[in-house]
Write a structure and sequence with these properties.
Blueprint (H helix, E strand, L loop, with lengths): L14 E2 L10 E2 L3 E3 L2 E10 L17 E5 L15 E3 L15 E13 L8 E6 L2 E2 L1 E6 L2 E7 L5 E4 L7 E10 L12 E3 L2 E2 L3 E6 L4 E11 L2 E10 L6 E5 L4 E5 L8 E3 L13 E6 L4 E6 L4 E4 L2 E4 L2 E2 L2 E5 L13 H13 L4 E3 L7 H10 L2 E5 L23 H15 L5 E5 L8 H13 L5 E2 L12 E4 L3 H8 L12 H8 L3 E6 L10 H8 L5 E6 L7 E4 L5 E4 L27 H9 L3 E5 L3 E6 L9 E9 L2 E8 L9 E5 L11 E9 L11 E8 L16 E2 L4 E3 L2 E4 L2 E5 L2 E2 L1 E6 L27 H7 L6 E10 L2 E9 L7 E10 L2 E10 L9 E9 L7 E8 L12 E8 L21 E6 L2 E9 L8 E5 L3 H6 L11 E10 L22 E9 L1
Parallel strand pairs: 27-28, 27-34, 28-29, 29-30, 30-31, 32-33, 33-34
Antiparallel strand pairs: 1-11, 2-23, 3-16, 4-5, 4-7, 6-14, 7-13, 8-12, 8-16, 9-15, 10-11, 10-13, 17-18, 18-21, 19-20, 19-22, 22-23, 24-25, 25-26, 35-36, 37-38, 38-41, 39-40, 39-42, 42-43, 44-50, 45-46, 46-47, 47-48, 49-54, 50-51, 51-52, 52-53, 53-61, 54-60, 55-56, 55-57, 57-58, 58-61, 59-60
Bound molecules: beta-D-galactopyranose (GAL).
């Protein structure tokens, strides 16, 4: 054994010794032995470690034990280093194909007994389903080979190296290698053997590979089999019992296409699968076959002849404790959750997932864009100089990656598009990958977003295009040149189907304007929807020194370079909790739509091919949120693409309460992903009679006063409110600040259509510069009238000449306490405002305000550009549940369209507020929280928030929209809150 540096970390070939061509990941009855479980493990700081560890007699007793599969940085409580999070940046010098000598290297060893009867006349294969990033394998001291391609399967022939009885397998894994340059995805760097290791017996007469290509046309299924097997495997039998198929092939030449009658098609909506088996005398392989035809016709992408609209998500493999280690139960729950939220498509960003995930996608029903393990984004930093994508030296590595991708997963009906990778610039190696895929699989289109000009891909794809730009792409008459395209290239791209492989960046609170994208899809058939970035946050479960658990993000592991919380950008929080954005998404993309007129509702079915026979239509009528009647609508079965108009039930309209009709389309029977009664789609109709808003009483008897008095339930000292309904209160004070969202913190792009106050500067920065987070006030006047108090304050901030005048009038009206606040900005304000609100602080005293009941929009938070999931009704919540625990604390909890709010303490009603609409009919929203916006803005994690002793109620006349600026468009001008005068009117009564 030598002690020269082990495997060539700078080698850009994809490894040596792995079996090629790659083949499908098949379910076989041939014996196999899982090598998952505890392995001996040693971590070295560099790649130059002696190789004698691989030898049979080597003593590894002093080593640790580590589970396989796992990532070593997530094991051993920091003993094996820590995860690193970067988006684009390389966490090592840009010196391709070299990596630093500081290269954590994990040595793994384990013994295994070769099962009896395995050695004679059979082959033995050792399969690794995922190792990050470069590894070398030895069996009984014999070097077998090495491989890179972290999220790809690699198989090695170890027939000659294993022997009866005890064997030793040793694996050396380097965290960094040349391959790291092409695996620069936006995610944690997580080294180790993180997917299964399996020993496979390959009997004589085994079937090497099977591909059952399928098609579907008018009730007839096409099966186009490809079998790779030696002569000894024949005769082979194909069976699909349910379809009466039993086909015997005596030689390879007899393997032929079959045409099968009476077949039901596979779709993401009705994922019909048939059990199939291909058997030789030696091996029995089972598959689940779905019949479907994928094609591009003109500028449309069709499955089984019908246009597909992707309501998709980008899915990474991420788990707070396991990282990218697959857990089937968790994955199934995750996919079932997607289905419940009307997600119908998955882009496997940015690498092939664990192969079982695709079985789940076939079974539960998703359109899948299967992406190759490839990203070289860090080269963007150096103007793409040296980008492997256009360097012939990397051609073989690129081809190896796409071959392993396609070959492993080619049997899955759910996969309808192959994607070459993500953000790898452009170049001939990508074109070569595409050519290979086209030659190997002529049916499925090739996608790669970076091919802006459409030189080698079949679909026009973009990420984060604004609504306006997306419309420019979809509209038939539009002519403006597309990104990076000449007019001719633009025309070529416009002739293809379009999809947004990423849009609606779901970082923190947001995104806004999902509904605008959705509307375009139903206007322009060339637009095929897209994939929200992204499904889940990638927070890693960690604990503070004081023992408080939290979800860590970039920078929490003292990384030299990192990208902070940019990895917390999912519609699901790290702990699987759906955020309000996921509810919004579900409502926006619901497959059934409702259009009301006087007495009828038109029910449209926007599904791909499924009719509505799986749905019932329940209705209910509420008066001020209280249910008064319910029933079921009789709706004929609506075919896909069809619409039926049906009579509404009789609605009993209340003279003195709001009357709302709600219709829910619910599942008639349980499915694999939801129980019976699960709501798929819903809509509301407002049937309220218009009721007059009490006029503002003008008073003529104002006189200067000292402001110390009692008005009904309110007590004032020197013009300031001190008690309400017997509870200590301070405020109301003008609140213009919100704890900036991740979108607020992103520099404005200043593009047309955005409300950029100052291009290149984040709105949050403008707010801080203007001092919105540190307002001070000066009382200008206090006056009294009969049963009334009026104060006028000038609110401004240090070193600022702009101000807001706030007039507060407290009065008794019809025996109730009314507060009317007039908010009047001075001239000179420029930036948008986050909110226009008034804040009451309610100290805990003997019993904290800890809950709310309200009639208005709910149940979840809503903002002007994210209102579709909200409905008008009565709701209640604890104060904690009003706020979403975003990965980084930020604005959360705003409930729009408030009519009535009751604050509670330990279940007892403390104070009731009725919100009157302003002169334009606009209603305020409210936020109830244990922390002020200023406190929230200071915290990087929830555990950094101070211990709360006060509850804070903010009544907002308006809030700024959310937008998607963290990666994408600003708040649309319609939802941008420019400085403006506003009125807030409340009636307050004791609980
Ligand atoms: C895209 C990229 C994703 C992710 C996203 C922002 O450019 O493809 O991987 O980084 O931006 O979260």
């Amino acid at each position: 054994m030598t002690s020269k540096p082990s495997a060539s970390v700078s080698d850009i070939t994809p490894g040596r010794g792995a079996l090629r061509p790659a083949r499908s990941w098949l379910r076989s009855d041939a014996p196999s032995l899982s090598l998952n479980g505890p392995w001996r493990f040693r971590l070295s700081p560099t790649a130059s470690v002696a190789r004698d560890f691989a030898a049979e007699g080597f003593d590894d007793h002093s080593w640790d034990s580590i589970p396989v599969p796992s990532h070593w940085v997530l094991q051993g409580d920091g003993a094996y280093g820590r995860p690193i999070y970067t988006n684009i940046q390389f966490p090592f010098p840009i010196d391709p194909p070299h990596v630093p000598d500081e290269n954590p290297t994990g040595d793994y060893r384990r013994h295994f007994p070769l099962p009896s009867g395995w050695s004679q006349g059979s082959g033995v294969v050792l399969r690794f389903d995922g190792v990050e990033s470069l590894f070398t394998v030895w069996v009984n001291g014999v070097e077998i080979g090495s491989a890179s391609g972290s999220r790809l399967a690699h198989e090695f022939d170890v027939t000659g190296a294993v022997h009866p009885g005890d064997n030793v397998v040793a694996v050396r894994v380097h965290q960094w290698s040349a391959a790291s340059y092409v695996e620069d995805q936006d995610q944690w760097w997580l080294p180790g053997i993180f997917r299964d290791v399996t020993l496979l017996l390959r009997p004589a007469g085994a079937i090497e590979d099977v591909w059952l290509r399928t098609g579907f046309d008018n009730g007839r299924g096409r099966l186009d089999p490809e079998v790779i097997a030696g002569p000894a495997a024949f005769p082979l039998t194909l069976r699909i019992p349910e379809l009466g198929v039993e086909q015997v092939w005596n030689t390879a030449a007899e393997v032929k296409r079959l045409d099968i009658a009476g077949v039901e098609p596979w779709s993401a909506e009705r994922p019909r699968l048939y059990d199939a088996a291909v058997s030789s005398a030696a091996e029995h392989i089972t598959l689940r076959v779905g019949f479907r035809t994928v094609e591009i016709r003109g500028d449309q992408f069709l499955v089984n002849g019908r246009r597909v609209v992707f309501h998709g998500v980008n899915r990474h493999e991420a788990h707070p404790e396991r990282g990218r280690v697959f857990d089937e139960a968790h994955a199934r729950d995750d996919l079932a959750r997607m289905k419940r939220f009307n997600v119908n498509a998955i882009r496997t960003s940015h690498y092939p997932p664990h192969p079982r995930l695709l079985d789940l996608a076939d079974e539960l029903g998703f359109w899948v864009v299967l992406e190759c393990d490839l990203e070289t984004h860090g080269f963007d930093t150096v103007g793409w100089t040296g980008n492997p994508s256009d360097d012939p030296a990397w051609r073989e590595a690129y081809l190896d990656r796409v071959q392993r991708t396609v070959e492993r997963d080619k049997n899955h009906p759910s996969i309808v598009i192959w994607s070459l990778g993500n953000e790898a610039g452009t170049g001939s190696n990508l074109a070569a990958m595409s050519a290979w895929v086209h030659a190997r699989d002529a049916e499925r289109p090739v996608h790669y977003e970076g091919d802006h000009t459409g030189d080698y891909t079949d679909i026009y794809s973009r990420m984060y295009a604004s609504v306006a730009e997306t419309e420019e792409i979809g509209a038939p008459g539009a002519r403006s040149p597309l990104l990076d395209c000449t007019p001719a290239q633009s025309a070529r791209q416009r002739a293809k189907p379009f999809l947004l492989c990423e849009y609606a960046h779901a970082m923190g609170n947001g995104p806004g304007a999902l509904d605008r994208y959705e509307a375009l899809v139903h206007t322009y058939p060339r637009l095929h929807g897209g994939f929200v970035w992204e499904w889940r946050d990638h927070g890693i479960l960690a604990t503070t020194p004081a023992g408080t658990p939290y979800y860590a993000y970039g920078g929490d592991f003292a990384e030299a370079v990192h990208d902070g919380n940019f990895v917390m950008d999912g519609m699901l929080l790290s702990d699987d909790a759906p955020t309000p954005s996921l509810h919004e998404y579900k409502a926006v993309v619901q497959p059934v739509r409702f259009a009301f007129d006087a007495d009828t509702v038109a029910i449209s079915n926007l599904r791909h091919s499924a009719d509505t026979s799986d749905l019932r239509f329940r209705w209910r009528v509420e008066h001020d949120g209280n249910p008064v009647a319910r029933g079921e609508l009789k709706v004929p079965v609506v075919p896909a693409g069809g619409s039926e108009r049906v009579q509404l039930p009789h609605i009993d309209v209340s003279p003195d309460a709001e009357t709302w009709l709600t219709i829910d389309a619910v599942l008639t029977a349980a499915t694999a992903w939801a129980p019976e009664g699960h709501v798929v789609a819903s809509a509301q109709l407002d049937r309220s009679v218009r009721r007059p808003v009490p006029a503002v009483r003008t008073r003529k008897d104002w006189r200067p006063g000292d402001g110390t008095l009692t008005l009904g339930i309110a007590e004032f000292i020197s013009g300031s409110l001190v008690r309400l309904a017997g509870r200590a209160v301070t405020g109301p004070r003008l609140e213009l600040f919100r704890a900036p969202t991740d979108n607020d913190e992103s520099p404005s792009d200043g593009v047309e259509g955005s409300d950029a106050s100052t291009p290149g500067v984040a709105n949050a920065e403008l707010w801080r510069r203007a001092g919105l987070d540190r307002l001070t006030s000066r009382r200008l006047s206090v006056s009294h009238a009969a049963d009334a108090l009026c104060t006028v304050d000038r609110v401004s901030s240090a070193n600022s000449a702009t101000s807001v005048t706030v007039e507060s009038v407290w009065s008794l009206e019809d025996g109730e306490l009314e507060l009317r606040v007039e908010i009047e900005p001075s001239r000179g304000w420029t930036a948008v405002w986050p909110r226009i609100g008034i804040r009451f602080d309610l100290p805990d005293g003997d019993a904290a305000v800890d809950g709310a009941e309200w009639f208005g929009l709910g149940p979840l938070e809503s903002y002007p550009d994210s209102l579709r999931a909200a409905r008008t009704s009565r709701f209640s919540s604890t104060i904690e549940d009003l706020t979403v625990d975003y990965g980084r604390p930020q604005e959360s909890g705003h409930r729009s369209g408030l009519r009535r709010l009751t604050l509670t303490s330990g279940g007892t009603k403390v104070l009731r507020l009725d919100a009157l609409p302003d002169a334009h009919g606009r209603r305020p929203g409210y936020t109830l929280s244990r922390h002020t916006p200023q406190q929230i803005a200071q915290a990087r994690h929830a555990f950094e928030l101070p211990e709360a002793t006060t509850s804070h109620l903010i009544i907002d006349a308006a809030q700024h929209g959310l937008g998607s600026r963290a990666c994408g468009p600003d708040v649309h001008p319609e939802f941008a809150l420019r400085p403006q005068a506003r009125t807030i009117r409340l009636r307050l009564t004791a609980g």
